[in-house]
DNA sequence: TCAGGCTGACAGATTCCACG
DNA sequence: CGTGGAATCTGTCAGCCTGA
């Protein structure tokens, strides 16, 4: 992994153009077999520019560093998270569920944003009070853009906490460790215990486990 | 000309291995 | 021990190609 450091370039361009509240948006939890997809939205202040040193792609941070940064973001920035359950993912598909979670994250901000910097490839137009919001999509944005990196950290920490809680509700799958991802242990538990309401039934490994469970029961 | 299929690029993440 | 790269898994989408 090259040492790419996120920059304020996109935010500064918007600030210069008169957009005061620029929200970075990112989602986590697209790949797992179980659990929700979670989106984060963060509006950073220009005065917090020192964060550029600490903020990186959430995947490149240790869990402790993520927790620490998430606490700082929650204290000093306007932030929100949105969820789309596994049921919504099965109903809408992962892409629309992701957009649904992003919309909820934006709605949970204290104030509506003037402009958005969104991780990914342009796929949807977000709006505020019925009017389209100025938006800029950045591929690999969590590694390139500070606001998106902050949003990815908030979303990741929120989702991890949720999966730890759900580990108590659905013991035996190791959600606290695997966060719903298809580790060998999780796959083995899926075959042994069958899918729960947390599992994405449209995902092939989950569907196969459900079918094997049904065949075994017959 | 148009519909359908294929391919590659993109998103999320984990695991394993090599290297400094 | 920490870091980085490759391979792996999931799904969506845009663009190109092919055949009717």
Structural class: alpha/beta
Percentage of β-strand residues? 15-25%
Which superfamily, in CATH terms, is the homologous superfamily of the largest domain? Ribonuclease H-like superfamily/Ribonuclease H
Q: So what's the oligomer here?
A: single chain
What is the average of the pLDDT values?
76
Order of helices and strands: HEEHEHHEEEEHHHHH
Low-confidence stretches: none
- Domain count: the total is 2
CATH classification, class level of the largest domain: Alpha Beta
Helical content class:
40-55%
**Tally of extended strands?**
7
| Count of individual helical segments | 9
Task: Enter the CATH topology name of the largest domain.
Answer: Nucleotidyltransferase, domain 5
Q: Mind describing the biggest β-sheet?
A: 5 strands, mixed
Q: Write out the strand line-up for the largest beta sheet, numbering strands in chain order.
A: 3-2-1-4-7
Shape: elongated
How far from one another are the termini?
49 Å
Named CATH architecture of the largest domain: 2-Layer Sandwich
Give me the Rg, rounded. Answer: 18 Å
């Amino acid at each position: 992994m090259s040492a790419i450091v996120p920059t304020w370039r996109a935010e500064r361009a918007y600030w210069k153009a008169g957009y005061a509240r620029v929200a970075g948006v990112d989602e986590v939890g697209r790949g797992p077999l179980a659990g929700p997809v979670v989106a984060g939205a963060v509006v950073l202040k220009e005065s917090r520019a020192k964060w550029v040193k600490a903020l990186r792609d959430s995947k490149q941070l240790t869990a402790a560093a993520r927790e620490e940064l998430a606490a700082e973001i929650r204290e000093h920035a306007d932030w929100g998270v949105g969820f789309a359950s596994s049921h919504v993912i099965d109903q809408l598909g992962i892409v629309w569920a992701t957009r649904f979670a992003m919309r909820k994250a934006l709605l949970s901000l204290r104030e509506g944003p003037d402009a958005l910097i969104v991780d990914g490839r342009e796929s949807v137009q977000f709006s505020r009070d019925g009017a389209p919001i100025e938006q800029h999509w950045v591929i690999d944005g969590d590694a390139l853009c500070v606001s998106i990196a902050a949003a990815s950290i908030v979303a990741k920490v929120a989702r991890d906490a949720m999966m730890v809680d759900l580990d108590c509700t659905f013991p035996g799958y190791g959600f606290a460790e695997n966060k719903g991802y298809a580790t060998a242990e999780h796959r083995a538990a899926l075959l042994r215990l069958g899918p729960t309401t947390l599992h994405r039934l449209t995902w092939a490994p989950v569907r196969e486990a459900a079918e094997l469970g049904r065949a075994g029961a017959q």
